[in-house]
């Protein structure tokens, strides 16, 4: 249906779910509709809908109404305005809530089958994206994954299951799991596809699915790739971009024999692209990538942008981009004197090193927290009652994608006096909450804290934004700042900076003084604090317990989702004080 002059739709209504009509006001003339609406008459005799149209035309505010005699159908009515903002019609969207719920269930299940993060493996950069089909009943079935398989090699796979909906999602789970299991067992590309062939022959709905599997071996400079009916991947070099050419086999469970995997050379700086039919249907081919920068984010954004710019996605589109990194980040190794002032030096070195690796923001937060706690313990306890000695930090990303960090000192392990503050020792709890493994080795030559975490990098977002480091650049003057506000019997203190071992004693002294040893209500605002370590947590616990004993109250305001909020949540400060996120 052509758009009427003055009422041209400002957005593609074809992409909207359900049946959509554009009406000219103040009457009910239909001037545009999407394909689902064109197949059905507009429910313009429904009294509830007519009343809603009149209300929207009068007030300009959107509303929602249930349709008479159709308990699962809901009409969403919104104003349509001209360039000057005047209401000149209404947009009516009718959806079946049961159908929408079913689509959401499929989308949620499909999303859970995709890896939440991609591995961080030395020598590689990865990016991935998935766009679900907008047409009802078409979503579900694409999958991908990547994993280190030893010897510096990286395995990647991308598949497309026949059909759609929950049935396709169930098949996807089985095929992806079988492929990962085969790779972890040491199967080569041909072995992985052979295992998927056997599985697809016995799983209803799996026959006819397609998959592409590849293993990159940088030591040999080789890429081994095999395909079961899947589109040939792209290889982008410094000066060229093209589709790999070799004889591929038919889809899974449909071949009596298969051609062997294809091997090609791959050099540092090359980019390898796996994609599904949904991307092929968008008309994007290698030629369009010739001028695109050879980094995985640019390639991924360019290809997915072409899919999104095309309007409604008729089929799922999955994309996995692998870049071979010509320069590997060397391990981190620094040594400082065991003094609280050196915590800033450790944080700065760690921040610069993680920036070169390109870790996900969540990984950086956890690493900063764990390393800070281990370093603080060494600084506070290793050289007690003696001249401060060295504290050494080493960190590296191993070939399996595990980050291994060690904090070592040459002092003596100090056994905690049972009579000391009961809230000491929370640093180890913070480390365990941020790392996968923790091992503390004590000996005559000192203590070594070894911790590790399997790294993952977030999949590329539709509109990627740069992530600020969790702690801003520090200066020599970066100490805790105080801003005190007195109101009747209550005191509000806004803190800024970093609350760690450097200023913990002074902060405790001043807050204790302001709260009159816990007898006066005290509110501590941490919105300006970038980091709180276990020594800062100990200060807050001691103030809270003191306030409870003296009949006072401690309230802590902390930005929700911030690093201080995470630390306070892990350590359970809300059990002894009022913690208000916001």
UniProtKB/TrEMBL annotation:
Residues in STAS domain copies: 480-582
PPM-type phosphatase domain: residues covered: 123-369
Pfam families: HATPase_c_2, SpoIIE, STAS_2
Key word Hydrolase present: yes
Keywords, ordered alphabetically: Hydrolase
GO molecular function, one term: phosphatase activity
Keyword Hydrolase: yes
Stretches of the chain forming a coiled coil according to its record: none
PROSITE patterns cross-referenced by the UniProt entry: PPM_2, STAS
Protein name: Anti-anti-sigma factor
């Amino acid at each position: 249906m052509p758009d009427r002059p003055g009422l041209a739709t400002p957005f593609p209504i074809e992409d909207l779910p359900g049946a959509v009509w554009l009406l000219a006001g103040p009457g009910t003339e239909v001037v545009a509709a999407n394909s689902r609406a064109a197949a059905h008459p507009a429910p313009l005799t429904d009294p509830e809908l007519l009343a809603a149209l009149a209300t929207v035309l009068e007030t300009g505010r959107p509303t929602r109404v249930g349709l008479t005699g159709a308990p699962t159908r809901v009409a969403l009515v919104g104003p349509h305005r001209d360039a000057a903002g005047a209401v000149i019609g209404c947009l009516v969207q009718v959806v079946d809530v049961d159908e929408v719920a079913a689509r959401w269930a499929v989308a949620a299940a499909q999303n859970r089958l995709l890896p939440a993060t991609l591995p961080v493996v030395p020598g590689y950069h990865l990016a991935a994206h998935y766009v679900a089909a907008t047409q009802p009943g078409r979503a579900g079935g694409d999958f991908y994954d990547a994993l280190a398989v030893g010897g510096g090699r990286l395995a990647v796979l991308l598949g497309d299951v026949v059909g759609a909906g929950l049935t396709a999602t169930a098949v996807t789970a089985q095929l992806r799991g079988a492929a990962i299991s085969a790779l972890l067992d040491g199967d080569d590309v041909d072995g992985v596809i052979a295992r998927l062939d056997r599985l697809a022959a016995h799983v209803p709905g799996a026959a006819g699915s397609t998959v592409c599997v590849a293993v990159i071996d940088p030591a040999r400079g080789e890429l081994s790739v095999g395909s079961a009916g899947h589109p040939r991947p792209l290889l982008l070099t410094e000066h060229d971009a093209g589709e790999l050419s070799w004889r591929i086999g038919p889809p899974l469970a449909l071949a009596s024999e298969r051609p062997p995997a294809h091997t090609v050379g791959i050099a540092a700086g090359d980019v390898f692209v796996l994609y599904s039919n949904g991307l092929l249907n968008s008309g994007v081919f290698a030629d369009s990538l010739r001028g695109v920068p050879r980094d995985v984010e640019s390639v991924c954004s360019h290809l997915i942008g072409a899919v999104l710019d095309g309007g409604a996605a008729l089929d799922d589109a999955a994309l996995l981009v692998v870049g071979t990194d010509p320069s590997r980040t060397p391990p981190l190794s620094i040594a400082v004197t065991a003094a609280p002032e050196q915590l800033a030096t450790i944080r700065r070195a760690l921040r610069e090193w993680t920036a070169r690796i390109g870790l996900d923001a969540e990984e950086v937060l956890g690493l900063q927290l764990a390393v800070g706690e281990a370093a603080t313990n060494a600084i506070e306890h290793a050289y007690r009652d003696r001249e401060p000695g060295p504290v050494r930090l080493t960190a590296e990303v191993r070939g399996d994608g595990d980050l291994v960090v060690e904090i070592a000192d040459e002092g003596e392990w100090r056994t905690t006096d049972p009579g000391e503050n009961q809230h000491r020792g929370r640093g180890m709890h913070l480390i365990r909450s941020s790392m996968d493994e923790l091992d503390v080795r004590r000996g005559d030559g000192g203590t070594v804290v070894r911790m590790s975490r399997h790294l993952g990098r977030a999949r590329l977002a539709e509109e990627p934004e740069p992530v600020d480091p969790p702690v801003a650049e520090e200066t020599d003057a970066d100490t805790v700042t105080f801003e005190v506000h007195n109101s009747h019997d209550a005191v509000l203190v806004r803190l800024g900076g970093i609350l760690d071992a450097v200023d913990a004693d002074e902060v405790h002294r001043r807050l204790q003084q302001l709260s009159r040893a816990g007898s006066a209500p005290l509110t501590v605002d941490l919105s300006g604090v970038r980091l709180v370590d276990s020594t800062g947590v100990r200060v807050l616990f001691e103030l809270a317990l003191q306030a409870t004993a003296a009949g006072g109250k401690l309230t802590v305001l902390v930005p929700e989702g911030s690093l201080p909020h995470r630390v306070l949540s892990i350590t359970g400060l809300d059990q002894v004080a009022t913690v208000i996120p916001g």
